[in-house]
Amino acid sequence: MSERAWRLIVGVLILVFLSVDSENLVYFDSDTALLGLVAWLGFEGLTNFRLTKLISWLRWRGAYLAEMEKAVSGVSSARKINFEAERMLRFSITTILFLTVYPGIVAWYPEVVNKMIWAIPWLVGLMLTSAGLTSICPMLMVLQWLGFKSKYH
Hints:
globular
C-alpha cells in the first residue's frame, strides 16, 4: 500500500465518519469511530509501525527490504531534523482531529470558536482525500521544507 492510497483511505474515512448521522443507526457511533481512527493514527505516529510499511513488507518481503536498503545506502541526508515527514504528518493529523473532535475539549473553547471549529475536521478530511487523489500533499511538502526527512533519506 502506498502513502498516496493511505491518504485517500484516511481522508474518505474522516469524511464518512463526519457525515454519518449516528442517531439513526443502532450499532454504529460515528464519534467513537472517528476517535478510534485518531487513536490509530496516533499509534502509527508514536511507534512508526505504519500500516503502509506492514502491507508493503507482507506483499514484497525481501524485494521491499532490498529496495529500502539500496535507497538508503550511500545517501547522506542534509535534513536538519532526523524524523520522517510522514510520521510527523500522522502526529499533526492526530493532534488537529483530537483537539477539534474530542467531546470534552469542546467545553474549553469560547462560544465564538465553537461555532467555527466544525470546519477544521472537514478541511483535514478534504485535504487528505485530495492528496490521495492527486499525490500532492501540501502539509507533507511544508514538513519536508521545514527539514523533516522525506521517504528514503
